[in-house]
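Suppose you are handed a protein chain with no further information: no name, no annotation, nothing but its sequence. What can you learn? This example shows the usual starting point.
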Amino acid sequence: MWMWPKNKSHAKWIVSGAIVFLATGLGLIFFSPDESAESFSQFIQADWIELDRIDSISKFRSGSGHDFSQGTGETCRSMKHYFNVPHTKESERLGKQNNFLPPAPDGKNDIKIYSPVDGKIVRIEKEQTTGGQIYIEPTNAPKYTVRLFHIYELDGIKKGSKVTAGQQIGVIGQYQNTDIAIEKRKGFNPNFISYFEVMPDSIFTKYQARGVKSRDELIYSKEYRDANILKCNGEWFTTNYDSDPNSKNFVFLTGYKQ
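A reasonable first move is to predict its three-dimensional structure. Written in structure tokens, the prediction is:
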């Protein structure tokens, strides 16, 4: 049975040690670095798309597409990146013939989609409109999920499939846009971060060669978006920001190859 020390100096030493221990613990609780300012692990091992077939990329927290922020503590902003092909008269003509949806891949002019990491496909969801969503859990960053949208997966690619970085896992049509989201799990809520925050310099140099000056050019900060709010009605933006040149949704790339 533990008893309080009779020696007062000994008791004083124990009390002092306990105070230091508690102060240290409280410091860890109350003075830990702000998670919003953390530097994320750059776990991407290969780019996920044939980049020379892409004309523009939407900015993280832009007004492109629809609101993609649910559960993050942020609202009315797109917390992912759209990778877009050029809008041409031909793509418009084909879209009108197909209820304004892009034609399915034809097996000849498709844009290849690759796994950006070594990992496992943990989920595949069919989209209501085009292709499906592929969820990949990276082997070297299991707290993250890479989520690819509107992908037509190759035969043999299914839930539970193990994939390697740079392995082709699907395609999109030549007139089709696609998008990518990076989720870091935080309790029961998602925490979306930019694809370019988890990309090493060795891969980002491909984007610099296409005219992107810096990662910041592709990301609106939370502070900027909070000060320059967008308007939504449910999941959808009330204004078509994609058609508004003043919205600056996109970074346009140089050297596009059809």
